[in-house]
Design brief:
CATH architecture of the largest domain: 3-Layer(aba) Sandwich
Helix content: 40-55%
CATH class of the largest domain: Alpha Beta
CATH topology of the largest domain: Aldehyde Dehydrogenase, Chain A, domain 1
Distance between the termini: 74 Å
Strand order of the largest sheet: 10-11-12-9-8-13-14
Number of strands: 18
Radius of gyration: 29 Å
Length: 470
Amino acid sequence: MTDLSSQFNLLITQRLRWAGAFADAVMTASEELVELCQQEIAKPREEVITAEILPLVAACRWHQRHARGILTTRRLPGTPWWLWGQKHQMIRRPLGRIAIIATWNYPVQLLGIQLLQAAVAGNSITVKPSEYAPRTQRRLLELAWSAGLGHDELTSTEATRAAGEALLAEHDFDHVIFTGSTRVGRKIAQGCANTLTPSTLELSGRDSALVLDDADPGLAARCLWNAVSANAGQSCMAPRRALVHRSAYRAFCDALVPLAASGQARKLVLPGEAARVRSLVDAAITEGGRSASGLHEQAPPDAPIRPMGVLDCPPEAALVEGDHFGPAIAVVEVDNIEQALEIHGTIDQHLATSVWTRHPRRITEFLDRLGSATVMVNDVLVPTAHPAASIEGHGLSGWGPSRGRRGLLAMSQAIHATRTPTRLRIPPEPPNESQLPILERIAGITKRQPSRPTQTGTLTTTDSLTEKSS
């Protein structure tokens, strides 16, 4: 066991040294990464810096400080007295070979942190870059190699869908990480099921913002609009609907209108998604909603799209369901928290919910009903960048933790190792008839008195039988 721990500790030391060099390389190449993200997915410079590079570098530094303690061998406390003499440890080991099928919407941050955690835990990794951000992610892999990760420890495929399908069909892996749509996630899960390969699936979210009666409506409107606009709405944790209490509703809408009117058009990455978003917004307005910006756009299907909000959106409108991947939010007035929770509960993909209130303790009243592994009070999106925080979907939003402590542990195997001395130990034979009562007394086991004999029918006890005979 000592040899196993020593070997793993040496590997961790090497990989943590690499993590520091990787962070330095990313910082040095930040301008190049900015340019590549702008060229491939039209992401503005400020978003590349704040939502891609800074979170990845922070994750590298966090792992340098904390990963060794998380992955270290631990003694299991609380050994029962009847296992006297034994020593129990939990030893971490690499899973082995990890496949990462990368996404495009945060091509540096998401792939970078997944790569970081798989590498720090000692695994070898194969990456299939996204077909929408191939040059950005290829450059990220080159930075990982330049920082000291060997080409035998990190390999990559072509950035095509066919390459991703071939990767899982033609190779054996010990774990698969996929980030993307629920539709593709189902296929990945089915393929992994055939070989019983564990997986981490980071799939879509369609979450809510709950603006309570005691919220700061102006702050809520500003933060939510920034979250809708950020990355052109192409974030799985962006809010799809704002459920606003009627006492805060007018002030919320008043604050949202000028923000919507000044929104800047952005080109979406997925073909046809802009047309889909416009169609959902148009339908919601036809059903009784009104445009927050006061504008009604007519544009070619894949033309750049402005962030859009629909005020007075009917709860039954398809836009409220949030099944889109673009900058649009439905604003629904609710009478109370119960109505908000009912609307929220009709959606089957919860990943990150935000609640707006001046009294944060109120969320304890309904926390279990939100269904999200991430709940943010008086903020949205930004807190999820904390390097210690894990993201974990469930149901149609996926499964398996990523990021933070739980994500790192998921990239390693736990081995329960025991050591029993050869002499001072519990005998291997079961206790005999004379030893068992002693063992029961020490354990505090109370022997039940034998029950009195019974039989079915009218005469049910020995006493009854005796009485009848007499």
